[in-house]
Amino acid sequence: MILDLLTVKFLLSYSTRPLQIFGLIGLMMGSVGAVITGYLAWVRLLGEQSIANRPLLLFGILLVFTGVQLVTLGLLAELQSRTYHESQNKSTYIIREIREHVAPGSHELHRV
Q: How far apart are CA 96 and CA 48, in angstroms?
């Protein structure tokens, strides 16, 4: 039941931007992988230690590659979403309200 509620929340939150969550997850994974591989490069170059037998090396590389794939998936999903909305003549966003005000010292109406 909780999973169903989470699914409904996900579909409502990302109805106009499907699969962009994968791009965000990809950025996080790629960043963590870059930090791990950067640390291992620092250990190898400055510490002159062998990093070949460390499982952290493979984990860092895995995170970087998976991050790149998920970011690419998010970009492709954004392109697909825009193509769908443009082909159906639908807007990709919804305007809740239009606010208007008069600037101080001016009698012109400005939209915010």
A: 59
d(CA 52, CA 62): 15
Output the 3-class SS for 41-80.
HHHHHHCCCCCCCCHHHHHHHHHHHHHHHHHHHHHHHHHH
Task: Give the domain ranges of the chain.
Answer: 2-111
Contact 64/33 with Cβ under 8 angstroms?
Answer: yes
Instruction: Calculate the alpha carbon distances from 7 to 14, 79, 97 in Å.
Output: 11, 23, 28
Residues 6+ apart with CB under 8 A from 73: 19, 22, 23, 26
Alpha carbon dihedral 25, 30, 36, 38, in 10-degree steps, equals -150
Interatomic CA distance for residues 107 and 95, integer angstroms: 26
Q: Tens digits of per-residue pLDDT, 69-81?
A: 998 888 887 787 7
Asked if residue 109 has pLDDT above 60, the reply is: no
